[in-house]
Specification:
The protein is mainly beta. It has a single domain, classed as Sandwich (Immunoglobulin-like). The chain has 1 helix and 8 strands; from the N terminus they run βββαβββββ. The strands form 2 sheets. Strands 3, 4, 6, 7 and 8 form a 5-stranded antiparallel β-sheet that branches. Strands 1-2-5 form a 3-stranded antiparallel β-sheet, with no helix packed on it. The radius of gyration is 16 Å and the shape is elongated.
Length: about 110
């Protein structure tokens, strides 16, 4: 299971659970976190809507980590996220896609 929540206008926190023991092919040595903006998804052609786009940004994590903050994102933008686990045997299937949107931001003015 993968979840994501907006932290601020340019960051989201992604958390995940390790695959079930019976679905692993050995000890998990790392995770691949993939993400792409909605705009990138719209530019993608002839690929399944549930698959990461070819140009998705990748962040590699150690096998002991279960969360990561993705920073440097665009304000008020929808992102699609996938996670996959690695073992010595190779990379497993990616998770189901999740969707998260960064915060809107902006200034808040108070009257006198």
């Amino acid at each position: 299971m993968v979840e994501a929540v907006s932290v601020n206008v340019s960051s989201v926190r992604v958390t995940w659970q390790a695959p079930a023991e019976r679905q692993r092919n050995g000890a998990i040595t790392g995770y691949r976190l993939m993400f792409a903006s909605e705009w990138a998804r719209q530019q993608q052609d002839l690929q399944s809507a549930s698959d990461p786009p070819r140009d998705a940004t990748t962040k590699m994590m150690s096998g002991s980590e279960r969360s990561s903050v993705i920073g440097g994102l665009a304000t008020w933008t929808v992102y699609r996220i996938w996670v996959s686990a690695f073992t010595r045997a190779g990379e497993g299937p990616h998770s189901d896609m999740i969707v998260v949107q960064t915060d809107e931001g902006g200034m808040c003015w108070r009257g006198n």
